[in-house]
TrEMBL record:
Keyword Oxidoreductase part of the UniProt annotation: yes
Family that this chain belongs to: Belongs to the short-chain dehydrogenases/reductases (SDR) family.
Transmembrane regions: none
Protein name: SDR family NAD(P)-dependent oxidoreductase
Family matches, as CDD domains: SDR_c
Amino acid sequence: MDDLRGKTAVVTGGASGVGHCLCRLFAEQGMRVAMVDVEAGRLAGAAQTLREAGLAVVDMQADVTDPDAMDALAQRVAAELGPVHVLCNNAGVGIKEAQRRMWTLTPNDWTWGFNVNVHGIANGIRAFVPGMLAHGEAGHVVNTSSGNGGLTSLPTTPIYAATKAAVTSMSEVLHYQFLMEGAALQAHVLFPGPHVVNTNILNSMRNRPAALRDDEETPAYVSMRDLLQASGIADPQLTEPEEVAATCLEGMRAGRFWILPGHSAQDDKIQKRTGDILARRNPTLPE
């Protein structure tokens, strides 16, 4: 689907980061864009900024973890913007887990991470794909995974890595099932990179529901750059969200299921992991 003009896109996690950049890029292509996020205030401000730039976006608050809210969102999008042609299941969260061992993480930690990163994508697929199939036109479903878990796993983020491994598997199955249906839809899995992406995901704890909080601590804001510098990397390389959005659009237009940035250290990690599996070698700690 080369010409996106007049088509409709839905992007979750649209108030900031990669999601916000996807909304801007799609709108610049002439699409009508539903910007979706759980934070109504931030979402309204982000959408207003794009509208002031002359872009056709509508802010629609919804919680991806709530199936009923996603059903209502799908109905609203259909009523206000028409048939959906691009669905980006992009909303995601990070857990405060990097300094903890897997066996110390709480049931609430696991529940929240999977609710957003996995069930959120399942809810998006369930709410929007039937309508996308019904209108019969070409379309795209893009699920945001991560090189961490989606391809290889870091030893410090068990919940995040596990959720992103699930996203990759879900996306592969969705791809197969579109083929089995003979659908005009294509599934894609997006791996932001090639470097750590400069987003606010480290601050997603602010949206953790009270029922799933184990303490009342609200972590202070921390940027990705600050975190990497604190870990000993004096001048960290970061990928900006705008680069990820551009890679996503290019991958969609090229019809690629695996949407990855150009060659990077991640390729070497994938090759090593694949080699270990085929040789039946035990994994080793990453350098």
